[in-house]
Write a sequence for this structure.
C-alpha cells in the first residue's frame, strides 16, 4: 500500500481509501449490499477488471470489506462491507452534498445509475414522522428505479419498484439529484421537466428545507 508517511488522521485515511475507484466501490456496496464482481463492474463503468480485483483485495486487507461464497444457485463470491467499511457512509454523504453544485448541468455523455442516488437519499430526514408510512418511486431516464420508504421517522431505500407508490418522480438525472439534495425546489424542478405524480406532500416530507 502506498502511503503519505504522515502522522495525520486525514493522511492515514487517504492511505487506505484515497486511490482512484476505491470510494466508488464503497458507494456501490452501500447502495446495493452484497455484490458479485459483475454487479460491481456494472455500477463502475470504465473500471478495468484487473484493477477492480486489486482494489477489492486492498479493501479486504484493510478490513473494509469481506468476501464469502454464496450458496447455489448463485454459487459465486459476494463482497460486502464490514462494520468498519459502513462507517464511511457519513463521509460519502458529505461528499455528495459538496458535489451538488457540480451536478447543476446535465451530465452529457456521463454515465448514470439511479442507485447512485441511494447514499444521499438515505441522508434525507422525515419532517413529519407522525404521518403514515409512504413509498416514493424515483425513475431516471433509461435506468432502474429506486424506492425511498419512509416510516416512523426513518428513511430506507432499495433498488426496484413498488406496486402502488405514494408518489413518483421521473426525469433526467440532474433534476432528480438537484431536487433530492436540496439544490432545486420541487416547483422549479417540475417547471424544468421533472415529472411528479401522486401526493406532492409526500415528497415534501423528505426534501431538504
Amino acid at each position: 500500500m502506498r502511503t503519505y508517511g504522515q502522522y495525520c488522521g486525514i493522511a492515514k485515511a487517504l492511505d487506505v481509501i484515497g486511490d482512484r475507484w476505491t470510494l466508488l466501490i464503497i458507494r456501490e456496496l452501500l447502495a446495493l449490499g452484497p455484490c458479485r464482481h459483475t454487479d460491481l463492474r456494472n455500477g463502475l463503468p470504465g473500471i478495468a477488471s484487473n484493477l477492480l480485483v486489486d482494489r477489492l483485495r486492498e479493501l479486504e486487507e484493510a478490513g473494509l470489506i469481506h468476501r464469502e461464497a454464496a450458496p447455489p444457485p448463485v454459487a459465486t463470491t459476494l463482497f460486502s462491507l464490514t462494520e468498519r467499511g459502513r462507517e464511511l457512509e457519513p463521509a460519502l454523504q458529505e461528499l455528495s452534498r459538496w458535489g451538488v453544485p457540480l451536478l447543476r448541468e446535465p451530465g452529457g455523455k456521463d454515465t448514470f445509475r439511479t442507485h447512485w442516488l441511494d447514499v444521499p437519499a438515505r441522508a434525507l430526514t422525515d419532517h413529519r414522522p407522525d404521518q403514515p408510512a409512504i413509498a416514493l418511486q424515483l425513475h431516471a431516464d433509461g435506468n432502474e428505479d429506486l424506492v425511498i420508504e419512509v416510516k416512523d421517522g426513518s428513511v430506507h431505500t432499495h433498488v426496484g419498484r413498488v406496486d402502488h407508490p405514494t408518489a413518483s418522480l421521473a426525469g433526467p438525472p440532474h433534476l432528480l439529484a438537484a431536487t433530492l439534495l436540496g439544490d432545486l425546489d420541487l416547483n422549479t424542478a417540475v417547471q424544468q421537466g421533472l415529472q411528479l405524480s401522486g401526493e406532492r406532500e409526500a415528497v415534501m416530507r423528505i426534501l431538504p428545507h
